[in-house]
Amino acid sequence: GAGVSQSPRYKVAKRGQDVALRCDPxxxxxxxxxxxxxxxxxxxxxxxxxxxxxxxxxxLPSDRFFAERPEGSVSTLKIQRTxxxxxxxxxxxxxPEPKGGDTQYFGPGTRLTVL
Amino acid sequence: DQQVKQNSPSLSxxxxxxxxxxxxxxxxxxxxFLWYKKYPAEGPTFLISISSIKDxxxxxxxxxFLNKSAKHLSLHIVPxxxxxxxxxxxxxxxxxxxxxxxxGKGTKLSVIP
Lengths: 115, 113
What we know:
Number of helices of chain A: 0
Shape of chain B: globular
Oligomer: heterodimer
């Protein structure tokens, strides 16, 4: 079956622009996660949804970052007034289980470059 | 401060030999550890995991060893195959039902035919 998909795969933004990154999880998966992976680093947790509820947003680096999952399926990560330090790969993962654990299935990521 | 450390950015191994990837952690609250494999332009894929109540878990060619006293784990791949060439991430979680994966920086494994 289809895995986690993310779009766009690549995004170039000028500093100060707003961007929206989309994640289509595996159908029926209740948990959805966003991670940020800077160059040469491992993924870092940003936020967690269980269905439509955002249960944890402790990893969001600033109030310029906003995530939503209004109908409990597709999720969007929005970054307002992008800065150069926002350049990274943004990974989405979903899981059929609440909280996920080792059953997180990752998408290919969106590579964001802020000029 | 990095709570999960993979101190070797890269590793080259001959096909058929053993690959050993190492990982150290500093947070004694971590009680579940995972290894992920990542090919270029793809997301990480779960490979194998181990609970802190065990010291070894084996799955085919892959074995993970955990030394809690040393806060160290390692992934052994035997025999190594060219298709194993990828970046390997060590990750950890703390607490039952926890979901926040803390990743290391990864080790790029190259298996030379």
